[in-house]
Design goal:
- Helix 5 packs across helix 6, helix 6 crosses helix 7 and helix 7 packs across helix 9.
- A 5-stranded mixed sheet has the order 3-2-1-4-7. Strands 10-9-8-11-12 form a 5-stranded mixed sheet. A two-stranded antiparallel ribbon has the order 5-6.
- The protein starts with a strand and ends in a 6-residue tail after the last helix.
- The protein has helices spanning 39-54, 89-97, 106-116, 176-180, 182-193, 198-207, 211-234, 245-249, 253-262, 284-291; strands at residues 3-9, 13-20, 25-32, 62-66, 70-71, 74-75, 101-105, 125-131, 135-141, 144-145, 239-243, 275-277.
- The chain folds into 2 domains: 3-105 and 282-291, ATPase, nucleotide binding domain (Nucleotidyltransferase, domain 5), CATH 3.30.420.40; 119-279, ATPase, nucleotide binding domain (Nucleotidyltransferase, domain 5, 2-Layer Sandwich).
- It is an alpha/beta fold and 297 residues long.
- It holds the Pfam family ROK.
């Protein structure tokens, strides 16, 4: 039976697993990334992890999920991986292990995992959205990632959902990420409530009945619903799966989103696209990365 390694290269945690072609996880490892040490030290740890995972196994390939930007197997300065300037990670690992190596951004990896093994495993067309510090997405059709002509399919964070709004570096004014992400909610909390600790505090105050906090959350939900409505009317997937820290910590948002979305789509599309919570948790990144190798039947 074929087996593959999946690596989730994050700014905080470095995770790895071995899965077989049925999607069963056979081994798992997890350790702090300690990204501030720079790429050489992290890559050395990554190689040790792969050595441990391959021990006693016949491995057909290695998949890696990483924060972007990425291009042609090269990692280009992700904000949470300091010093990773044009690091050719695919080439480095191929030379070390003499195996095919695949590199993809973390949102696409999560989309692939949830489409093949998670909440979308019985659906043909799956759109995945992560709402965390930022907002990202990925589209999977018939268990294949749809990347687009320039590998930008699913990059919904820069979708314009308002003609006004704050301007974040690298994003359009009025972008979805600048208005509905955890970072956006936290910034409005500072501006309007003078509170720290980001979106978590704003949600806590909203749940306690603070009217300003409730309005901040309602505004973010409204903008997110506009973005999802745009996806429904352009991609028309069978299901939309939501993950990321903000959604996972506030699952009640889904019912509010469903109501809001219906006001932005054609009447015959209302209630047509179910929203679901991501189900794979911390295993999303590793399993999705392993699936990049094409192991899954």
């Amino acid at each position: 039976m074929k087996k593959a390694i999946g690596i989730d290269l994050g700014g905080t945690q470095l995770r790895g697993c071995v899965i077989d072609q049925s999607g069963k996880i056979l081994k798992e490892l997890n350790q702090p990334t300690l990204a501030q040490r720079g790429p050489d030290a992290v890559i050395a740890d990554l190689k040790k992890m792969i050595d441990t995972l391959t021990e006693g196994e016949s491995i057909s390939g290695i998949g890696i999920g990483s924060p972007g930007p990425l291009h042609n197997g090269i990692i280009h300065n992700p904000p949470n991986l300091p010093g990773w300037s044009a690091i050719p990670l695919v080439e480095i690992l191929q030379q070390s292990f003499d195996l095919p190596v695949y590199l993809e951004n973390d949102a696409n990896v999560a989309a692939l995992a949830e489409a093949c093994l998670g909440a979308g495993k019985n659906e043909e067309s799956v759109f995945y959205i992560t709402v965390s510090t930022g907002i990202g997405g990925g589209y999977v059709l018939n268990r294949q990632l749809i990347k687009g002509a320039k590998n930008c399919a699913g990059e919904i964070g820069n979708m314009i959902v308002s003609s006004n709004g704050p301007l974040l570096p690298g994003l359009n004014r009025g972008s979805l990420e600048s208005l509905a992400s955890g970072q956006a909610i936290g910034k409005r909390g500072v501006q309007l409530l003078q509170v720290a600790n980001g979106a978590k505090t704003v949600f806590q105050l909203a749940n306690e009945g603070n009217p300003i906090a409730k309005q901040i959350i309602d505004d973010a939900i409204n903008y997110l619903s506009i973005g999802i409505a745009n996806i429904i009317q352009t991609v028309n997937p069978n299901i939309i799966i939501l993950g990321g820290g903000v959604i996972q910590s506030q699952p009640h948002i889904l019912s509010k989103l469903t109501t809001q979305i219906d006001s932005y789509v054609y009447s015959y599309l209302q209630q047509s696209t179910p929203l679901a919570l991501a189900t794979l948790g911390a295993q999303t990144g590793t399993t999705g990365s392993a699936l990049l190798t094409g192991i899954f039947e």
